[in-house]
């Protein structure tokens, strides 16, 4: 019932020579660009000779550093800026495409079921003369005279009630 994180020496192996600079998302030494947790536990890149020289220079006056040096220091610590993290990715296009593909498959399945799987409707439903004969037979047999079809028929006048 301890931490699920690997022990510290194992973490050092997993992250290489990258410097641990904070707590991170959940205390593990991982790098994640996230707006919800903007300060990752480790730096994005391992320190090179150029980066180490810039780290010494950053301890002095920042006005003496060029814009390119500041950007390279930032990119050594972070992969993306917060604006880049929040920028739209265009993922909605692939989701929309997959949804349309799913709808297309569903429509094709419906058409296939309608034409091949299910038989055509019987004549008793499609032929109007047979429907009328069936209704007349139900009336003649006085089928369900209380609430059903026959309840709407006047047997004394031999016509439908109005």
Give a description of the structure.
- The chain is an all-alpha fold and about 160 residues long.
- The chain contains seven helices and two strands; from the N terminus they run αααααααββ.
- The protein has a two-stranded antiparallel ribbon with strand order 1-2.
- A hairpin with a 4-residue loop joins strand 1 and strand 2.
Topology pattern, helix = H, strand = E: HHHHHHHEE
What is the helix fraction of residues, given as a range?
Answer: 40-55%
Number of helical regions: 7
Q: How large, in whole angstroms, is the Cα Rg?
A: 38 Å
**Structure class:** mainly alpha
The biggest beta sheet reads:
2 strands, antiparallel
Distance between the first and last residues' Cα: 81 Å
Overall outline: rod-shaped
Percent of sequence in beta strands: under 5%
Give the helices and strands, then pairings.
Elements: H1 8-15, H2 49-58, H3 67-77, H4 82-86, H5 91-117, H6 123-126, H7 128-140, E1 153-154, E2 159-160
Antiparallel strand pairs: 1-2
Helix pairs in contact: 2-3
Provide the descriptors you would attach to this structure in a database record.
mainly alpha; 162 residues; rod-shaped
Short description:
This protein has 162 residues and is an all-alpha fold. The protein is built from 7 helices and 2 strands, in the order αααααααββ.
């Amino acid at each position: 019932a301890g931490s699920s994180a690997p022990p510290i020496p194992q973490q050092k192996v997993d992250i290489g020579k990258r410097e641990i600079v904070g707590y991170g998302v959940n205390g593990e030494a991982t790098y994640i660009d996230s707006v919800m947790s903007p300060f990752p536990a480790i730096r994005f890149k391992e320190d090179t000779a150029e980066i180490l020289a810039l780290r010494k220079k950053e301890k002095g006056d920042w006005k003496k550093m060029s814009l390119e040096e500041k950007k390279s220091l930032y990119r050594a610590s972070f992969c993306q800026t917060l604006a880049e993290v929040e920028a739209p990715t265009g993922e909605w296009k692939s989701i929309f495409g997959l949804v349309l593909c799913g709808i297309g498959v569903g429509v094709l399945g419906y058409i296939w079921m309608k034409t091949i799987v299910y038989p055509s409707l019987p004549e008793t439903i499609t032929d109007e003369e047979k429907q009328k004969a069936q209704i007349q037979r139900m009336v003649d047999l006085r089928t369900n005279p209380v609430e059903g079809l026959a309840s709407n028929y006047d047997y004394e006048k031999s016509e439908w009630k109005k």
